[in-house]
Amino acid sequence: AQSVTQPDIHITVSEGASLELRCNYSYGATPYLFWYVQSPGQGLQLLLKYFSGDTLVQGIKGFEAEFKRSQSSFNLRKPSVHWSDAAEYFCAVGARGTGNQFYFGTGTSLTVIP
Amino acid sequence: NAGVTQTPKFQVLKTGQSMTLQCAQDMNHEYMSWYRQDPGMGLRLIHYSVGAGITDQGEVPNGYNVSRSTTEDFPLRLLSAAPSQTSVYFCASSYKFGQVAYEQYFGPGTRLTVT
After folding, report:
1. For residue B47, how many C-alpha atoms fall within 13 Å in the half-sphere facing its CB?
2. B95 lies within 8 A of chain A by CB
3. Of A47, A62, A70, B14, whose CB has the highest number of CB atoms within 10 Å?
């Protein structure tokens, strides 16, 4: 069965520090992977996506993610965090099923200390 | 483009009342879906649709009905509201899965409280 695990419920980093949010997936076929960000009281915004090809994917707001098939992981990174990056981050896998069904992780809440 | 719109933004219901959450998109997307978001549980799929006249159940469909009479609209009906349905509801839309999965576009959400 398809599933996504985000092991870290909450992460706190200092402004300017680097960030890595973990995501592990379970999916039998080629995974289509996404990272979304949700600011407080807002909907979800796409940060980046992986379909195929280069395993290092660049996204908006200076984020990148690396797909590692051997580890079933798609970790999100940012070299230097800004206070405005404080938000909830969701990893998702798009399944080749009916329609375009996504399986979401439970999210990682990021706090940025000034 | 307005993208995905949802109304209302906030709603308070009493147990047993019914209501409809509205969702509309202007991107001509075939796929539309409803999620509920609860603390610590991420987003859970309630119902989805792959086109007008076609709907199916997701992970947590009990207590909810949907219909899709047009490409643009995908309303979610709560038949008899229960406190367990207190949640934030998101509507999303995308192109239908072709060779790849497509990103889903999300509405701003409806915060529902059932007392």
Report:
1. 20
2. yes
3. A47
Beta-strand relationship, A108-113 and A10-14:
parallel
- Determine the Cα–Cα distance for residues A107 and A48; give it in Å rounded to an integer: 15
Q: Quick check: B3 contacting A, CB < 8 Å?
A: no
Q: What is the pLDDT along chain A (114 residues), one digit of tens a residue?
A: 788 999 999 999 999 999 999 999 998 777 899 999 999 888 999 999 998 888 999 999 999 999 999 999 999 999 999 999 999 999 999 877 667 889 999 999 999 999
Residues 6+ apart with CB under 8 A from B87: B36, B37, B38, B112
Query: Apex CA B35: angle with CA B51 and CA B83, to 5°?
Result: 130
Q: Does B89 touch chain A (CB under 8 A)?
A: no
- Judge: B40–A106 Cβ closer than 8 Å, yes or no: yes
Answer yes or no: do A99 and B103 touch at CB < 8 A.
no
Q: What would the two tokens of residue A55 be? A: 């395993």
